[in-house]
Predict the structure of Protein arginine N-methyltransferase PRMT10.
Amino acid sequence: MGSSVNGGPGGRVSNNGVDKGVDFANYFCTYSFLYHQKEMLCDRVRMDAYYNAVFQNKEQFVGKVVLDVGTGSGILAIWSAQAGAKKVYAVEATKMSEHARELVKANGLEGVVEVIEGTVEDINLPEKVDIIISEWMGYFLLRESMFDSVIVARDRWLKPTGAMYPSHARMWLAPIKTGLGDQRINDYESSTDDWHRFLDETNTYYGVDMSVLTRPFCEEQNKYYLQTSIWNNLHPHQLIGIPGIIKEIDCLTATVEEILNVRANISSSITEEKTRLCGFAGWFDVHFRGSKQSPARLEIELTTAPSENNGTHWGQQVFLLHPTPRVGKGDDVLISFSMDRSKENHRLMEVEFGLEMRHLAGRNPQPIKKKFYIE
Amino acid sequence: MGSSVNGGPGGRVSNNGVDKGVDFANYFCTYSFLYHQKEMLCDRVRMDAYYNAVFQNKEQFVGKVVLDVGTGSGILAIWSAQAGAKKVYAVEATKMSEHARELVKANGLEGVVEVIEGTVEDINLPEKVDIIISEWMGYFLLRESMFDSVIVARDRWLKPTGAMYPSHARMWLAPIKTGLGDQRINDYESSTDDWHRFLDETNTYYGVDMSVLTRPFCEEQNKYYLQTSIWNNLHPHQLIGIPGIIKEIDCLTATVEEILNVRANISSSITEEKTRLCGFAGWFDVHFRGSKQSPARLEIELTTAPSENNGTHWGQQVFLLHPTPRVGKGDDVLISFSMDRSKENHRLMEVEFGLEMRHLAGRNPQPIKKKFYIE
């Protein structure tokens, strides 16, 4: 044998049918490292957005009760307190809670910020809150399915007049050009070439014919190299068409049913002369608008769109096409997009693209269907 | 957020207190990829040893009933059948069992090899077996703790006169020289330098003093860079002292208690002129000797020792020292070694070294104690 083994504490089955031990072992434990917290705290776009959402709207926080869902190192809870909150409940599922507690104390806020170790589904608060602040966004917004927990917190603990920080979220999709595809094709092909050398050897030296496994092996490698979306920070000039919104979420009213899947039919018109449609990029933005009763004085946006100088640790998710259709300025790409949670792991996603080209000139190619996995 | 999420099915707590769902999610799932099976099947040292253990001792298999624990792709079960076994039970916990079944059929052995999907702890056989064959060895032999399952299989299903393949295993330790240490020190130092830049920024731009987290961050990074053993295929000339055996296992009689931990006090004399003791390498070998009642005609050895041309996918585990003591030919290094399973994950290990130098000439330095983690 000889393989990788991951860590993680024991578990029990939680009421949503997801094994909690597995979820802790696989998900929460990734957030229990300061190194990983630091990576997020070094994301200037992320930090500036939340910092300004709090301090440019100080008056929203003064004298208020705040709940921070998944506080991690405690930064959002500390800012809320510094902005004048009367009380901040900072909930963290991992042992990171201990570091958050130290940090709160070192910044002289132990009188205001109360760090609670536990999942927001399990904890109990002595009062309802005016504001729920949380950085719950995963790759392409919904990966990690953490907003489920924010919804639970909101429905249990937010006052009817309360505000969500962020208050709104959107998912975007756009056609792109990229060199990533050729790379992946090469990796896939050398992997399958190598497989055939392996078949010959196993047959010659060890008397076993493994060719029956060729199909499943190629399927496995195809999924890994060609059907798994790729993290990338794209340059804006790699966008070759008009980005479209495929999902809008009002964080104050959204239900889990609403975010279980994403279905959208959009059309993107190509903005570039003769080029190749290499695939699509998916990203998100969120907005901090406060609530109807207490709107933010200054609306803040956090965007993870392709940017020359303001990339984020979220980057974009890239979905590659093989082969890459020819497109030109004025052509329309009709995209029917659907995303669902994977059955094996509710924090991962399965995506399906249906594509139709409407060329300005010449014949329209056959519609394309392709499935992807967001791992 | 934005982090890695691993897969894995749901689970229940098994009687040994280890959450089975977590164990599947973290451990077994790594073996459910053909790519990973291929890596093991491409290890010529591993393949040749098992192939010869079976076919150089054909007469041991003719007309016998065999159990393969953790058959993976099914290769050992197929060889056992090809060598003349009357019946082979091939047990595999993951979906790889389906591929094994196809492979057995494609090689015309479905009449002899019965692939059973399940853990060996849970399955039931209609008869006792003459031979248990299994490739259960993890990095440094005991990582993965898979031999526990082989012991269960042996105590339940092996006839009193039965034989284990392999029949014996040994763990080795030797002093080495390597450049890996400087590399790791550099990585550690640039990581902590970067942390201090991060502290200044967070303080200046975001008004939070994170210095209280410096100690835990450095401890985390120290564990990662300097206390975690490293996989490496060393060249024999990197050994600077006589290797010593720290554990011997008779696979026919060993109990789980016997392998829960490893305790050894050995002395290694340095064989090289003036050099640095950069650390230690740990590896294992196993032997195929059959049993007293039916000894193998030809004893086969599978060794993962440093080798110029016969490296394995197990390589060696390298434990680095900082600083690196000066040693010279004839000096003795007294090593008190202990290894235990980690409390968080019984398939990972925690190692402690106690070191004393006996220099031929000059003063002996202070004894050294160092803790390592085999992740």
